[in-house]
Specification:
The chain is α/β, with parallel strands linked by helices. It has 12 helices and 8 strands.
């Protein structure tokens, strides 16, 4: 295990790029001591710590209807969720695509999952080392996109997608004291997030009227995100961090096409394979 921190950006199905990167690293038996995952990056992160090559890919990319986790519109209205989160964070890990809890809990790697506290509007970096149900609940909270997923209550506190408050937690990685930081992004070079539209802000205010601090966090997400990207670019230019990002057009965050997703997954795998020597030179330097 290498003493270094790994930051995994989210992006829903764009996370298949990250799973390709991590699958190659796991095949080479490269494991870093500290993992910080956001949203889909949390799902990738726990599978990396449990050392399950291909698990995230298999959960996210499939043709079989029985594995489909998207609700049809009537079900979406009833459940107030675009996706069947019970399937993803209960049936998947405990039945269809078994998660290796034993390896995860026995690991010396520290895995932090980023969530957004709905009451404070701030990011929290949550861990779990013993309880299976709580681990999956935290991962579910980290991955619960606003407006299309319900809040997740953990320890009597409501949470949503960690990307709202801290999409690229490089600052958190720096605070861990790690001298080496690896950042896996799911957006192309030069990407900047556009301001949230007035219409979307109105939706936030209506949906989360009891959580004004959450609304503020969501409304100004683009400002924080772009500042984090600028920090990443600065540290990368200075040679202080290693960054890998997709070089082909990214998939949409709710992409469903099997071939499109597999192509993006394979791009992450091949890009990491191509860049492996540069990564090792950075980690060993």
């Amino acid at each position: 295990m290498i003493n270094a921190a790994m930051v995994l950006e989210g992006g829903a199905t764009r996370g298949v790029f990250t799973s390709g990167v991590l699958d190659y690293l796991m095949e080479k038996e490269i494991y870093l001591s500290h993992v910080i995952g956001v949203s889909a990056g949390s799902c990738n992160g726990i599978d990396y710590v449990s050392r399950q090559i291909g698990r995230t890919r298999d959960c996210m990319i499939h043709r079989e209807k029985e594995y489909n986790y998207y609700y049809r519109f009537p079900k979406f209205i009833k459940e107030k969720s675009l996706m069947d989160m019970d399937m993803i964070f209960d049936k998947y890990p405990n039945d269809l695509f078994p998660f290796d809890y034993d390896t995860y809990f026995a690991s010396d790697m520290e895995c932090e999952l980023v969530t957004t506290n709905c009451e404070t509007g701030k990011a929290e970096y949550m861990t779990e080392h013993r309880e299976k149900e709580r681990l999956m609940k935290i991962c579910r909270a980290s991955s619960s996109m606003p407006l299309v997923s319900p809040m997740v209550v953990v320890d009597k506190t409501p949470y949503l997608d960690g990307g709202l408050a801290d999409s690229i937690p490089v600052g958190r990685a720096v605070k861990t004291g790690s001298k080496k930081i690896v950042v896996i992004l799911t957006r192309n070079p030069g990407y900047r997030k556009k301001p949230v539209s007035k219409g979307t802000v109105k939706l936030y205010k209506r949906a989360y009227k009891s959580y004004p601090k959450l609304v503020r966090t969501a409304a100004y997400r683009n400002i924080r995100y772009n500042r984090e990207v600028e920090l990443v670019e600065k540290l990368e230019k200075e040679g202080r961090i290693y960054v890998l990002r997709p070089l082909i057009p990214t998939v949409s965050r709710l992409e469903r096409d099997y071939d499109t997703l597999m192509n993006f997954y394979e791009h992450g795998y091949s890009l990491m394979k191509r860049d492996y020597d540069r990564l090792m030179k950075y980690l060993e330097g």
